[in-house]
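In response to reviewer comment 3 from the previous cycle, which asked for concrete evidence that the modeling workflow produces usable outputs, we include below a single protein chain processed end to end. The sequence was submitted unchanged, and the resulting structure tokens are shown without manual editing.
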Amino acid sequence: MVFFFFITSFASSVASPDAEILLSFKGSLQNPIFLSSWNDSVPHCTWVGVSCQLGRVTSLALASTSLRGHIPASVFSLSTLVFLDLSSNALVGEIPPQIGQLKRLRQLSLSQNQLSGEIPGEIGGLTHLRSLKLGLNSLTGEIPAGIGRLTRLDTLDLSGNGLSGALPVELGELTQLQFLDLGNNRFSGHLPGALFTKLQSLTSLDISNNSFSGSIPPEIGNLTSLVDLYIGTNSFSGQLPPEIGALSRLENFIAPSCSIAGPLPDEIAGMSSLSKLDLSYNPLGCRIPNSIGQLKNLTMMNLVYAELNGSIPAELGSCRNLKMLTLSFNSLSGSLPEELSGLPLLTFSAEKNEFTGPLPPWFGKWTQMESLLLSGNKFEGRIPTEIGNCSSLQHISLSDNLLSGEIPREICNAVSLQEIDLNGNFLSGNMDEVFLHCSNLTQLVLDDNRLGGGIPGYLTDLPLMVIDLDSNNFSGSIPVSLWSSETLMEFSAGNNQLEGILPREIWKAGSLQRLVLNNNQLRGTIPKEIGNLTALSVLNLNSNFLEGSIPFELGNCGSLTTLDLGNNRLNGSIPDQLADLGQLQCLVLSHNNLSGEIPGSLAELTNLTTLDLSGNRLAGSIPSEFGQCSKLQGLYIGNNLLSGTIPASLGGLGSLVKLNLTGNQLHGSVPTSFSNLKELSHMDLSFNDLDGQLPSTLPEMLNLVGLFVQHNRISGCLDQFLSNSVSWRIETLNLSHNMINGELPASIGNLSVNT
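The workflow returned the following structure tokens.
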């Protein structure tokens, strides 16, 4: 009897119409490996993701099961379905209108798929629905008005689609709605005040990243249950309505980049539960209101790029829970009020303002501070020693101020310091032992100051990744031990008075990506071991006293994007191996004593934008292969011993802006192909042996403002050459010391011409 009952139940299961629908659903999908248990060997109510009551399917929970394909209309024949979750899959196509058949459905989630098309109006027939989630798809069109019939809905998520149009006033009928997310769509128009009149149960509202316009309606004050409000990145106008102060339960008000103007209403103090306030990137154009000090629960306030003026109100010091205060890129002025010293701040950012006066010693009370960013102001005087009391400080930026005096050794009492940026001040003294105890320091930026003395060897013992000492008065040689650093990625010490040589030990700095030592007094040769720095992307040794040949091992530095060896005493030929630097964008070898021919293989550097070989003793002809360097914007090979004709292939350099071939021994005529150089602004062919006539098409180069061809043997008639120059933007034209005749036409305007 038991055996007979089992057979009967099993046969009944297989014959169930729900089972047939589910198998049909499975069959419509592409390789549904997560549904392998769906087969007629076991009852359908035991299948993965399926729940039943009395043998009928009531729940289908298949989120994140790698489903691919269209949703078949047949699945909506599961008439007893209460819960349907197909979210986080790869379902495509439109939502079938048959979805309206699921009259008992309470929860529907199709979010995070690739569904397209419009939301079917039939969805308004699901009157038992409490949760509707269609976010993160590619749905388009407007919200159907029928959605207002879903009066039991408490959650509606349509975010992250391409929905457009105005919001239907019918949304206001969803009086039980608690969560409404319409963010990241293309909605437009004004916010209907009626929308906020009845939604008094709403706790979270997100309409961010749309194109809403008009003012924020005062009816927003009716949303007295609201906890989260996100309205950023829209095109509103006007001010925040005073009624917003009625949102006493609001904890998060995130409204960046939505064109809100000031002044901020004093009623903002009524938002007594507010924890996070973000009004950044708005044209507030006002002062920070004193009433903001009444927001006792405030933990984060972001007013970056808000066109604020005036001073920081002392009342802000009453926000005793404030941990993040960002006021950068405004026009705030005055000194920092001491009342801020009692705040438990983790981050204080006030960069690019107009603050003045000395840095206050009470900074030392900020023992929890992690980031102190005050660059781009007018602070003056010394760096207070008390800053060493900020035991949690990790990042300090005081760059571009008027600070002077020595850097206090106490700064490293802040043992957590990882990044120090003091560039662009008037700091003096030396670095002896100043940073010796900054045992966690990874970034030290001191460029553009008045620091002097030697570069201390103890820097090697710190975990430094970036050292920037540019534009100071450092002298002596670079400690050899520095090249043994396993962490150093950037070392810049250009525009100093450093001496000595680049040692062979440089190969040990295997992590080095940027080495800038231009404008110093380095001597000796470039060690061939530099070729072991395969991570190097920038090498700038310009304006030193380096001699010898360019090591061919540089061709091993395959990550190089900038190689600048100009203004030295290098000799020999340009090594062919430089053509192996496929990432190179800027190559400067100018003003050395290089000889031999220009390697045609340099044309293989297809990413090159600047090539400067001027001021050497290079001979031979200009490689015609250079015409292949399609990204080249600047070609400077003047003042060499080049001969032959100018290759016509250079006319194919469509991105070229500046061309300088002056001071060579080039002959022949100017190629007519040069008229194709539509981006060219300056061309200098002077002091050569060019002949023939200038191409009549040169005036068609509308971006050309400077043309220099003096001291050649160019002939022709001036008025004929300039007869079509009405639209020519040329500003300086030097044709002197040639064989050109004729007079200037009247159309030439205010052109400066030397004939």
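The domain at 1-165 is CATH 3.80.10.10 (Leucine-rich repeat, LRR (right-handed beta-alpha superhelix)). We consider this sufficient to address the reviewer's concern, and the full set will be provided in the supplementary archive.
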